[in-house]
Design brief:
Structural class of chain A: mainly alpha
Largest sheet of chain B: 8 strands, mixed
Order of helices and strands of chain A: HHHHHHHHHHHHH
Helix content of chain A: over 70%
Shape of chain B: globular
Number of helices of chain A: 13
Helix content of chain B: 25-40%
Strand order of the largest sheet of chain B: 6-7-8-3-9-10-12-11
Oligomer: heterotrimer
Radius of gyration of chain B: 21 Å
Largest interface: A-C, 69 and 63 residues
Strand content of chain B: 15-25%
Distance between the termini of chain A: 9 Å
Order of helices and strands of chain B: EEEHEEHEHHHHEHEHEEHHEEH
Structural class of chain B: alpha/beta
Chains: A mainly alpha (328), B alpha/beta (322), C mainly alpha (308)
Number of strands of chain A: 0
Number of strands of chain B: 12
Shape of chain A: globular
Strand content of chain A: under 5%
Number of helices of chain B: 11
Radius of gyration of chain A: 24 Å
Chain lengths: 328, 322, 308
């Protein structure tokens, strides 16, 4: 229990750090970038929106830094992110709200799939040490991990989208012919548009899971308790899963949390290449259009999502490892 | 058949990048029903490797290069894990050095007893609970600890629960790899007494590996001294202690102080055990031997039966050492 | 927070730096992956140092007919702006290598400083540095980089270098701290302390040389991520699009819908180079893992003696 509380504390601390970073960054940059942004959008904004933006970015106010900070925090906590400048008059919250489902679907599902598949393959590769899987994997995935995510996506687009015309490669669905509805036609369209982006994300992220699981399994298999399990005459599968994998996966869960940062990077770039209407794509559009309120909100959302995932991984570790539960 | 184990010409190699290294060289011995055999030697002499080889628990890069291990008549070498599972734990069990490492950290003690029992037959839940409690009581642990995890028990309790686990099927042979080394002196003695008592009560044979000669001398029937992968002396414990034949054994005995005897200056054995990849010519012990002669550096001695014991020494063989 | 997954090489005792490097040299020659990686990196370094030798044309000059295909005059054809693609690729190597090595070295230096300091100063220092490291570790780096770079608005390569260095030291700092902690109680350090050596001396002259292999591995990791992050940022337009680099080539290719308009090489070629350089760093790093942890090395498949 104390372990979980400690993690929650860390979670809160990091969230606060991200919020503060968000607050300080535009103010620290030489020549407050918000000034340029405001000049650009000046004519289109209502006085309230202008005021809100000024608070967010600390422009033209005579309020002290401390009071700006307080108002900023207040805005953040009440989810008042303001109006999106590039998608005026939509609020930031609504833009984020619609984009989030696309990303959750694509990235969320693919990551879970990659983790499960990757871990499974890693276990088997280590168990059958020296087999074809074990010898092939390390070099292949070492190289795969160094390949930029977006390049893989581009190659897939080139081969399957442009040359072979097998799969669509732009957007979340065909905006010209379809309107969002719960019809099988629409769903089918969504799925076909998701295949290439999902596949790109899968092949670029699965390598890490496989490799790290394999490596921890190999170390675990050398442990005395695995030898002991063999001595007891336990069936092979039980040793592999109950004794080896159960223990090997623990450091992997922590590693999972660490790798999330990279999964997120990959997701952003892949959404960009495929124009997939998720959170990452919106973030890059916002950057391009100097729509800082939207950009900030998306950054915070992504950070929050990663923190939540890490918290879940920590809780899972606590559940699986009796030693953590007992630790102070 | 009174023989529970017959090891013949067993050799174990480690397949390393720089070449194969023979860690156990042509070891042979037999073990009778209910006999307690102690194996002593310095670190790296191959005793643990020998033990794992007998139990068929070696892992790459180690492998049995030659010889046979006949357990109750059947040669275990070359059998698959599937074929071995019938005798594993039922007839032959293992106790390892560090219970903290040998027990699965994420499973409770009871769960680890249970999966051993379920691997051999189809016991009911009551049978499992009953037997688990019974073996724990045998080693003096309250059965309430069946629900505990290894890290929740003290070192001594962990070690004893490992021994309890080894008793689950009252096997004919229990192999122990330095089970007392991680304990303090008092716990060591109490554990040894417990093991000996169980052995006398239940009648199983024991192979007990240790580097602590004085400890084992009070409990074992026969003693085997290993050096650099070979057996240098093998005989009844009392005999080996009272009249050590091999210079190495003599050196080992003189290195241990006696609490009650007269004060004698301690003598260590000069030098270090050899690198198994670069063994000295002739007798492996000769560089450190106070009685070595010219020929000891040229001729490698075989094990010689000297009535009271087996010894590997040229000078003992021809009686020139007394 | 528990230690991140790492199979970092652990030294068994005191190892002077020169000795460690010599051992590494031998290890590189015997391990195939290491040799391949080293050869690739050396190749790229040479190209970065002497681009004029290989590519005659000025990469920025848009003097040629646009969208030409492969030919003897233009080994990879020309871009939509009439620039020679091969020249761009070759000259772009310099920008990438500069980023890789500067960020790699700077980040590793910071990581060593913070990791070792945290391990040795202990107490409040350790706790605060740890919290700082952990927070930075957990905040997703790429979005943070995007936000900072967006505010900096096309600051160019220097900004990229600064920004990436400032944010990506935490992972390797953690690894270095772990190893420094295990070394703290090693015998040879006790001996140094007993001799009366000052803490700083012990740290610089004894501890850090022993950590040489982990430090080198950290450098490789950091260089790899520098290349990937930098080219990703350039790809989305946050580096200076007018510099010649692989990432900026990709930016222009994407902007001109290169894939769809039949100019696939514009996108594929720079991407392949990034992949190759990245692979070189990754191979070397993996080889180091194997060298440090023999259990991971390829297993010799002897005849099926079930090793029983």
């Amino acid at each position: 229990m104390r372990f979980v509380l400690r993690r929650l504390g860390f979670f809160a601390l990091t969230l606060w750090a991200a919020l503060t970073l968000n607050f300080l960054l535009p103010r620290l940059m030489p020549g407050n970038p918000a000034l340029a942004m405001l000049a650009k959008f000046h004519g289109e904004l209502t006085p309230q929106s202008l005021k809100a933006l000024e608070i967010l970015f600390g422009v033209q106010t005579h309020a002290s830094l401390a009071s700006q900070y307080v108002s900023y925090l207040h805005q953040m906590v009440t989810f008042n992110f303001g109006i999106s400048l590039t998608q005026y008059p939509a609020t930031v919250s609504s833009v984020v709200g619609s984009a989030i489902w696309w990303t959750l679907g694509l990235v969320g599902l693919t990551t879970v799939l990659a983790f499960v598949l990757g871990t499974g393959l890693g276990i088997v590769a280590a168990w059958r040490r020296g087999g074809w899987l074990d010898s092939l994997l390390p070099p292949v995935f070492v190289i795969a991990s160094a390949v930029p995510y977006f390049w893989v996506a581009m190659v897939l687009v080139l081969v399957f989208g442009i040359s072979l015309h097998w799969l669509p490669y732009v957007g979340g669905f065909n905006v010209i012919t379809d309107t969002p509805a719960f019809s099988p036609g629409f769903i089918g369209d969504v799925l076909s548009h998701a295949i290439l982006p999902a596949f790109s994300l899968l092949i670029t992220t699965i390598g890490t899971w496989i490799l790290t699981m394999r490596n921890t399994m190999i170390t675990t298999l050398a442990e005395d308790y695995v030898r002991m399990a063999r001595a007891k005459g336990l069936p092979g599968r039980r040793i592999m899963l109950d004794y080896a994998a159960r223990n090997a996966i623990l450091p992997n869960l922590t590693g999972f949390a660490m790798s999330l940062g990279f999964v997120v990077s990959g997701a952003i770039l892949i959404e960009y290449v495929f124009n997939y209407p998720g959170v990452g794509f919106q973030l890059l559009q916002a950057v391009e259009g100097e729509d800082y309120p939207l950009m900030q909100a998306l950054f915070l959302l992504i950070t929050l999502a990663v923190l939540v995932a890490i918290l879940i991984a920590d809780v899972a570790t606590a559940l699986l490892d009796p030693r953590t539960r007992a630790a102070r | 058949m009174s023989e529970v184990l017959e090891v013949s010409g067993l050799s174990v190699d480690y397949l390393l990048d720089r070449g194969d290294v023979r860690a156990v060289d042509d070891v042979s011995f037999t073990l009778d029903r209910g006999e307690f055999l102690g194996i002593v030697g310095e670190s790296g002499c191959g005793k643990s490797t020998l033990l794992f080889a007998v139990a068929q628990l070696l892992a790459p890069p180690a492998r049995i290069a030659a010889g046979s291990v006949r357990f109750q008549g059947t040669n275990l070498v070359g059998l698959t894990d599937g074929q071995l599972s019938a005798i594993r734990w039922r007839d032959m069990s293992v106790v390892m050095q560090s219970a903290m490492n040998a027990l699965n950290p994420v499973k409770s003690i009871g769960a680890q007893f249970k999966d051993a029992m379920k691997a051999h037959g189809k016991p009911t839940a009551e049978q499992i609970a009953a037997r688990s409690a019974e073996v724990l009581k045998m080693v003096g642990i309250d059965p309430v600890h069946l629900g505990s995890y290894p890290h929740q028990l003290s070192g001594g309790m962990r070690q004893r629960s490992m021994i309890a686990m080894a008793m689950l099927f009252t096997p004919d042979l229990v192999i122990m790899d330095e089970p007392t080394s991680a304990l303090d002196v008092v716990a060591q003695r109490s554990l040894m007494v417990q093991i000996r008592e169980l052995q006398l009560r239940l009648g199983f044979a024991v192979i007990f590996v240790t580097h602590d000669m004085s400890l084992i001398s009070h409990f074992s029937d026969r003693l085997m001294v290993m050096y650099a992968g070979q057996v240098d002396e093998l005989g009844a414990t009392r005999t080996v202690f009272d009249r050590p034949l091999h210079p190495y054994t003599e050196g080992l005995l003189e290195a241990f102080p006696s609490i009650r005897g007269p004060r004698v200056p301690l003598k260590g054995i000069p030098g270090n055990p050899p690198d198994l990849a670069r063994l000295p010519a002739g007798c492996r012990f000769h560089p450190r031997c106070p009685y070595a002669e010219q020929r000891c550096a040229q001729v490698a001695p075989d094990l010689f039966d000297l009535d009271q014991a087996l010894v590997r020494c040229l000078r003992r063989q021809d009686g020139s050492l007394n | 927070m528990s230690v991140p997954l790492s199979v970092a090489p652990l030294d068994t005792g005191r190892v002077p730096a020169t000795h460690a490097l010599a051992r590494m040299g031998r290890a590189i020659r015997s391990n195939r992956k290491a040799t391949a990686g080293t050869v690739l990196i050396v190749f790229f370094i040479l190209v970065a140092l002497f681009p004029g030798v290989i590519a005659r044309d000025n990469p920025s000059l848009d003097a040629y007919k646009p969208k030409l295909g492969l030919s003897a005059a233009h080994l990879l054809g020309t871009t939509a702006y009439g620039q020679d693609m091969f020249a761009q690729l070759v000259w772009g190597t310099r920008n990438v290598m500069i980023i890789a090595f500067t960020v790699g070295l700077a980040t590793t230096a910071i990581a060593v400083l913070i990791g070792v300091a945290a391990a040795y100063l202990g107490g409040l220092w350790d706790a605060s540095l740890n919290v700082l490291t952990d927070v930075l570790l957990v905040i997703p780096l790429f979005p943070l980089l995007i936000v900072i770079a967006a505010y900096a608005r096309n600051g160019g390569t220097l900004v990229l270098i600064l920004v990436i260095t400032a944010t990506s030291w935490s992972y390797t700092a953690r690894q270095l701290r772990s190893q420094a902690l295990t070394l703290r109680s090693r015998d040879f350090l006790e001996a140094a302390r007993v001799r009366g050596e000052r803490k700083l001396y012990v740290i610089v002259m004894e501890v850090i040389p022993t950590m040489t292999s982990l430090i080198v591995a950290s450098f490789l990791t950091n260089a790899l991520y520098a290349v990937l992050f930098a080219s990703s940022l350039q790809f989305i337009g946050l580096g200076d699009p007018n510099t010649v680099s692989w990432g900026t080539m990709l930016y222009w290719a994407q902007n001109n819908a290169a894939l769809q308009t039949g100019q696939p090489l514009w996108a594929i070629a720079p991407g392949a180079c990034i992949a190759a350089l990245g692979a070189a760093f990754a191979l070397l790093n993996y080889a180091f893992d194997e060298i440090g942890n023999p259990a991971l090395r390829p297993v010799r498949r002897s005849k099926r003696v079930r090793s029983a």
